[in-house]
Amino acid sequence: METIIQASYFIVAVIFIVGLKQMSSPVTARRGILWAGTAMVIATLVTFLDPQIIDSDQAATNVGLIILAIAIGGGYAWWSGKRVAMTDMPQMIAMYNGMGGGAAATIAAVEMLKASREAALDPTEATTIADALNPDVAVLAILGAIIGTISFSGSIIAWAKLDGRLNRSKLLPGQHFINAILAIVTVGFAISIYFTGGDLTPIIVFFSLALVLGIFITIPVGGADMPVIISLFNALTGLAVGFEGYVLGNAAMIIAGIVVGSAGSLLTHLMAVAMNRSVANVFFAGVGTDSGATGEGTQGEMKEIQAQDAGILMAFANQVVIIPGYGMAVAQAQHKIWELTQLLNDKGVSVKFAIHPVAGRMPGHMNVLLAEAGVPYDMIYDMEDINANFKTTTVALVIGANDVVNPSAKTDTNSPLYGMPILDAIDSDNVIVIKRGRGAGFSGVENPLFFADNTKMLFGDGQKAANELIQAVKELG
Amino acid sequence: MIEGLAALYIFMLAGFTGYEIISRVPVILHTPLMSGSNFVHGIVLVGAMIALGIAETSIEQFIGFIAVLLGAGNAVGGYVVTERMLEMFKSSDKGSEG
Questions:
Q1: In Å, how far is A413's CA from the nearest CA of chain B?
Q2: Which tens digits make up the pLDDT trace of A380-407?
Q3: What is the pLDDT at residue B7?
Q4: Which of A10, A105, A400, B72 has a CA 20 to 30 Å removed from the CA of A299?
């Protein structure tokens, strides 16, 4: 039986790796998640046969509890995952990730409690948790517990912030100092657990401190940096799962956990680079501390255009590049934009979508939103692939995007955006910007593109404006 | 059981594997892939099941129950949202298997 179980875990680990590999290409991605899902089901079913569980004194009760917990936890996740809107995807990922971190931490808690009880029962066998578990196991159990707990409470805060339940980032005076002290005290209690025997107090204090630490780390992080934090917590949960896998002697957990830990770390780094931030910056700077200057003032006036004229301009263009931002998704305009795209295609206009790496709430989020509207992924171009094309573009249509097309990121060394790679919409013959009002973008920085000679502003709600454009193009017959 | 040095090798190799998988990923897939890797560490459910399965006192059972609850949420939720996102990735060629 043991062999069958271990062999199954081995196969599961292989399928996970192959599945993740497949998920890294758009052609095979769907298959990848289906495979990984199947592997997860196999792993879960096989675990019910584990002799440790079957031979336990309370086997009947425990198996019943396991089934009940899976039904409740899985049922809730299924229900919430099916109904969440695509725009809210990032916070749901944060939530599910937090649950994983919490699970890793609670596994560690159970192991600690068992070890502590052993130490209390029979001091001749073992006097401390480290003795009862073996030193290496104890160290990884405690490490996994810290990481998992921080990931749990931090992810919940990230979810609450992105979901609009917890507003604005608050930075207490001396926040970083407090965090540092808190981290040191937490580590102190972690070490004390290693040396305690039957006393439960340090374990309880330790978990409470780690919970608070996770909250304090996440509270000051600004909305724009949230994806980086979520990705980091994702990597941390992976690491915690890997460590607890070692504690339980479970190869599938070790491999899956560590693969995610390293893949997640790299992904976090890639995201931070795409946003022109360093991971350390995200963590320690908090929001807005580097945006004292808002860049030099802009000259000139915004020129308005009516949907009618904008539609004609686009219908007779050679090439139109659409630059969508999160604002488009908020206005739920992506379906209308796709309809407009098809109309233009019928008129022989070549239409491309240009996606900045940080469009949407996290890298790749905008692609998901466009895919939801039915835009095929081969019409969607990354920044590096499209930027050279703007010079031959008749109309660049900017909808709901702002900072990612702000030319001051290239020209104005005083701008907080300076150095961030942007989409060179300004190079095209005409720029049409669909925008609700005249305000500045998410970063609060003025955008000189809006005042440029070749830019025309189409003021109004994204969906309404897109509708008007569709009408205008249709009327041309 | 996996012990000592053997575990260290597994940690090392798994670390490189994860790095390799991600290093050639187009930006278009960053969010789904983060979601997918989030699902993969849902394997923590297996560990949670063992933790609850070997629990002996009621406090251990209670904490183990929470572990399985959270682990199942991670695995199922991660799967559902990833699958929903990837389902939408279609090429403009008709009839692609996706």
A1: 27
A2: 888 888 998 999 999 999 998 888 888 8
A3: 87
A4: A400
DSSP A81-120: HHH--GGGHHHHHHHHHHHHHHHHHHHHHHHHHHHHHHHH
Band the pLDDT of A421: cuts 50, 70, 90: confident
pLDDT in tens, A76-90: 999 999 999 888 888
pLDDT > 80? residue A50:
yes
- CB-CB contact of B16 with A262 (8 Å): yes
Query: Lowest-pLDDT range, A38-47, A193-202, A310-319, A393-402?
Result: A193-202
Distance of CA A272 to the CA centre of its chain: 11
Chain A residue with Cα closest to B21 = A21
Q: Are the beta carbons of A104 and B35 separated by less than 8 Å?
A: no
Q: Report helix, strand or coil for A399.
A: strand
The larger pLDDT score, comparing residue A270 to residue A144, is at A144
Q: What residue spans of A196-225 are helical by DSSP H?
A: 201-218
Contacting residues of B for A113, CB less than 8 Å apart: 57, 59-60, 63
- Please tell me if residue B90 touches chain A, with a CB cutoff of 8 Å: yes
According to DSSP, the residues that pair with A354 across neighbouring strands are A381
Tokens of A422: 């942007």
In which residue are the tokens 């029962």 written? Answer: A121
Using the beta-carbon criterion (under 8 Å), do B30 and A363 form an inter-chain contact? yes
d(CA A45, CA A284): 43
ipTM of the complex: 0.91
Q: Is the dihedral of CA A375, A376, A377, A378 positive or negative?
A: negative
**Structure confidence at residue A169 (pLDDT):** 59
Does the pLDDT value for residue A360 go beyond 90? no
User: Quick check: A373 and A335 in contact, CB under 8 A?
Assistant: yes
A299 alpha-carbon distance from chain centroid: 37
Q: Tell me the shortest Cα–Cα distance from A48 to chain B, in angstroms.
A: 8
Element (H, E) at A321: strand A319-324
Q: At residue A98, what is the residue type?
A: G
Per the annotation, the verdict on A403 as an active-site residue is yes
